[in-house]
Amino acid sequence: MNSLLNPLKMSSEHCDQLATPNGFSFGLSIFIVVGILVSYLPQHLRIIARRSSEGLSPYFVLLGTTSGTFALANIITLPTSQADIGCCREISRVACAAGLLGIAQVAVQWGCFSVIMFLFLIFFPTPGPEEHVPGSPRPATWRDALTVAAISVAHFVIVIIISIVFLLWYPNLLQGWATFLGVCAALLACIQYLPQLWTTWRLQHVMSLSIPMMCIQTPGSFVFAGSLAARLGSSGWSSWGVYIVTGCLQGCLLAMAIRFELRDRKKAQQSGGLRVPDERSPLLSHVSPQLLGRD
């Protein structure tokens, strides 16, 4: 009898804690949700303004989308999150919303990165105005963009279906499934930025990659990880650990992007604001009018 009452008592105590949300934690969580939305806007707008996603590695987009799906399914299936969702029947709507902000943070990030995936499909890479150095990687094709979108959607559907099966018929195995999802998310996050680092290095240009987005997200990843760690504790390491890894790798990409951007601006200043000619530029377009006999 005691073994049956203990889980109920623990659940009641957990709901009592959620019923009185901490003001600082609630404000920080709201700030992070808004920050995630704002941080992705520069990347979305840059792709739309250039009308090209050139410079984004298709493997980076694919790994980022699937990693986000794993992370979303992970935090939803965690027993701690399930307890938070269950408490919504007993506590106020405001307290319920505060308790579910951890899930909302991951969901918003997944949604924002999914928008990048769809923009990558809509504005599939076309050559931009930047100089292409010899040995640049082959631009992604329309088929590459379709493949990334198809795999991402299929992966999302499969993960959600399996998670629902565990939730409905195997709830005692949820912690193991959630840990598996978290490990997969962390592994994909570890390699997510590697193809983008390689692509940006070989292109020697930022192109459609947004530096403002990375300036916001690099420190934000560590703040996000701390917020989730405070909410989920050590048992939720598979959820917040992925953002520590992401922050470190994104910091490396940011440093590389800033280096190339400063170099390009220096070249532009040295050439008087004119584009530096390359082997594809018309020969006579860079000859002065005096040499051509014009006044």
TrEMBL record:
List where the protein spans the membrane.
Answer: 20-38, 59-78, 98-124, 145-170, 176-194, 206-228, 240-260
State a GO cellular component annotated for this protein: membrane
List the Gene3D superfamilies hit by this protein, alphabetically: 1.20.1280.290
* Keywords tagged on the record: Membrane, Transmembrane, Transmembrane helix
Q: Which InterPro entries match?
A: LAAT-1, PQ-loop_rpt
Where found, per UniProt? Membrane
What Pfam families would the database entry show?
PQ-loop (PF04193)
List the membrane topology term(s).
Multi-pass membrane protein
UniProt name for this protein: PQ loop repeat protein-like protein
Q: Which organism is it from?
A: Trichodelitschia bisporula
